[in-house]
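**Sequence, structure tokens**
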Amino acid sequence: MAFMKLDNGELLKNIRRFAKKNGLTLAEVATLAGLSVSAIYSWKQHTPSKGTLKEVAQVLGTSYAKLVGKGSRNDQVTAVDLKKVVENQKNEFEYNGQPVSPAQLKIIRNVLKTMFERGQS
């Protein structure tokens, strides 16, 4: 996986946007993430660790990827074949910021398979 340099301005903009969406101030986000009140503001000068950003993302109810701007820059809808996605062993999944285990992924595959088999009969 290639290293992506974070744009600290974009990062702070995203944190502010998600905080506002959740009715939180940056100080409240910092406190809920177990950080000092000034921590988030200091990210203008340095980039926090991935673990710290994951904590902040969890507080804000979003993913690490969306928080750091790795997600789509627009809100266009794209059709995805779920079978291809869940069967591709290279994909890694998260739910609410938590990794999906192989056992959980197997359950998801079985649920989807059963749901669509019943829908076709």
